[in-house]
Write a structure and sequence with these properties.
Radius of gyration: 14 Å
Low-confidence stretches: none
Strand content: 15-25%
Mean pLDDT: 80
Structural class: alpha+beta
Distance between the termini: 11 Å
Order of helices and strands: HEHEEHEH
Largest sheet: 2 strands, antiparallel
Number of strands: 4
Helix content: 25-40%
């Protein structure tokens, strides 16, 4: 159980999640993120954003406010799931 908890904590420490299929690779969110959480994937036809440093996410949601394509979604409830593993 400890391994699952650690994986969830590592993957879901950001306050947002992304849908890369909606990304138009405008990179506005990359420039808007003050903590450099968001990175670029630019390999051939795979051009979209990715969360690179989730542990640095402060929850400012500037990426959500900046993105015109609705790539970012607020992460709700994952903190509760992780807390549930500790019980």
């Amino acid at each position: 159980m400890r391994g699952i908890e650690n994986k969830l904590r590592k993957i879901h420490t950001a306050h947002v999640w992304i849908n890369p299929r909606r990304c138009a690779a405008c990179w506005k969110c990359v420039d808007a993120c003050p903590e450099q959480v968001i990175g670029k994937v630019g390999f051939l036809w795979h051009r979209h954003v990715v969360i690179r440093n989730p542990e640095r996410c402060s929850g400012c949601r500037k990426c959500m406010k900046t993105c015109p394509h609705g790539v970012f979604h607020e992460m709700e409830g994952f903190r509760d799931i992780i807390q549930g593993f500790r019980k």
